[in-house]
Amino acid sequence: MTDNTERTTHFGFEDIPEADKAGRVRGVFTSVASRYDLMNDAMSLGIHRLWKDAMMDWLAPRRGQRLLDVAGGTGDISFRFLRRAGSGHATVLDLTAGMLEAGRHRAEAEAMSGMLDWVVGDAMALPFPDNSFDVYTISFGIRNVTRPEVALAEAFRVLRPGGRLMVLEFSQVPNPALAWAYDRYSFNLIPAMGQALAGDRDSYQYLVESIRRFPDQETFLGMIEGVGFEQARYRNLSMGIACLHSAWKI
Ligand SMILES: C[S@@+](CC[C@H](N)C(=O)[O-])C[C@H]1O[C@@H](n2cnc3c(N)ncnc32)[C@H](O)[C@@H]1O
């Protein structure tokens, strides 16, 4: 007999009981929340902004659309989406209250609070009815979810027919020379930067390890199709360091 306490999953390079993962992930993001935006710029040399803009280019937000931004953290994707759409509404859902709190401050500073809701919740059990959103995004979030296929099934459920899924995530670099250089940068520099800028080496060590454990582009495409999405496609960003997956609920 199998139950949740017996199943294991990965937390970075560690194997842990599945039931412990969400708490450990919440611990990481609670610890980094106040410095999350600063660290994103420092670690990626600002490139995460280009990737998020590429996501918006492909998504092409339209006026009045209802977005659900899961693992939305401090709201980077939702802010971009609403600015491009011109009008609409975004619900930012995240496991970590501290990340949403940082996002709420940003929304107040940018006078956008009226267009946003902030909801603490789990991607694997969304507190929304079926067919309620036009667009579902998850950016640098799904690799932290205990069972990504459950989160994808939830995305399918809450999207209306004709709705769009878009996932931005770190991925696998096919070019061996670039993969070697990227590994050196990731494992040597990122945890050290986490220590120097945020006083937190362990959270950034987890970040690097979790990227290596996430499925490659084709495998993840198959997972998206496996829950019922159609017209699933992907586009590599920066030679596969990150990747966008797009799909539709028809
Ligand atoms: C790297 S941050 C990404 C934030 C934002 N989407 C961005 O692109 O900047 C990952 C976020 O995923 C959230 N998260 C992790 N597991 C989650 C889950 N099961 N359900 C909802 N949010 C989750 C974390 O709390 C964290 O805020």
UniProtKB/TrEMBL annotation:
<feature type="binding site">
    <location>
        <begin position="122"/>
        <end position="123"/>
    </location>
    <ligand>
        <name>S-adenosyl-L-methionine</name>
    </ligand>
</feature>
<dbReference type="InterPro" id="IPR023576">
    <property type="entry name" value="UbiE/COQ5_MeTrFase_CS"/>
</dbReference>
<dbReference type="GO" id="GO:0009234">
    <property type="term" value="P:menaquinone biosynthetic process"/>
</dbReference>
<dbReference type="InterPro" id="IPR004033">
    <property type="entry name" value="UbiE/COQ5_MeTrFase"/>
</dbReference>
<comment type="pathway">
    <text>Cofactor biosynthesis; ubiquinone biosynthesis.</text>
</comment>
<dbReference type="GO" id="GO:0032259">
    <property type="term" value="P:methylation"/>
</dbReference>
<keyword id="KW-0949">S-adenosyl-L-methionine</keyword>
<dbReference type="GO" id="GO:0009060">
    <property type="term" value="P:aerobic respiration"/>
</dbReference>
<comment type="similarity">
    <text>Belongs to the class I-like SAM-binding methyltransferase superfamily. MenG/UbiE family.</text>
</comment>
<feature type="binding site">
    <location>
        <position position="94"/>
    </location>
    <ligand>
        <name>S-adenosyl-L-methionine</name>
    </ligand>
</feature>
<dbReference type="InterPro" id="IPR029063">
    <property type="entry name" value="SAM-dependent_MTases_sf"/>
</dbReference>
<protein>
    <recommendedName>
        <fullName>Ubiquinone/menaquinone biosynthesis C-methyltransferase UbiE</fullName>
        <ecNumber>2.1.1.163</ecNumber>
        <ecNumber>2.1.1.201</ecNumber>
    </recommendedName>
</protein>
<keyword id="KW-0830">Ubiquinone</keyword>
<dbReference type="GO" id="GO:0008425">
    <property type="term" value="F:2-methoxy-6-polyprenyl-1,4-benzoquinol methyltransferase activity"/>
</dbReference>
<comment type="pathway">
    <text>Quinol/quinone metabolism; menaquinone biosynthesis; menaquinol from 1,4-dihydroxy-2-naphthoate: step 2/2.</text>
</comment>
<dbReference type="Pfam" id="PF01209">
    <property type="entry name" value="Ubie_methyltran"/>
</dbReference>
<keyword id="KW-0808">Transferase</keyword>
<comment type="function">
    <text>Methyltransferase required for the conversion of demethylmenaquinol (DMKH2) to menaquinol (MKH2) and the conversion of 2-polyprenyl-6-methoxy-1,4-benzoquinol (DDMQH2) to 2-polyprenyl-3-methyl-6-methoxy-1,4-benzoquinol (DMQH2).</text>
</comment>
<feature type="binding site">
    <location>
        <position position="74"/>
    </location>
    <ligand>
        <name>S-adenosyl-L-methionine</name>
    </ligand>
</feature>
<keyword id="KW-0831">Ubiquinone biosynthesis</keyword>
<keyword id="KW-0489">Methyltransferase</keyword>
<dbReference type="GO" id="GO:0043770">
    <property type="term" value="F:demethylmenaquinone methyltransferase activity"/>
</dbReference>
<keyword id="KW-0474">Menaquinone biosynthesis</keyword>
<feature type="binding site">
    <location>
        <position position="139"/>
    </location>
    <ligand>
        <name>S-adenosyl-L-methionine</name>
    </ligand>
</feature>
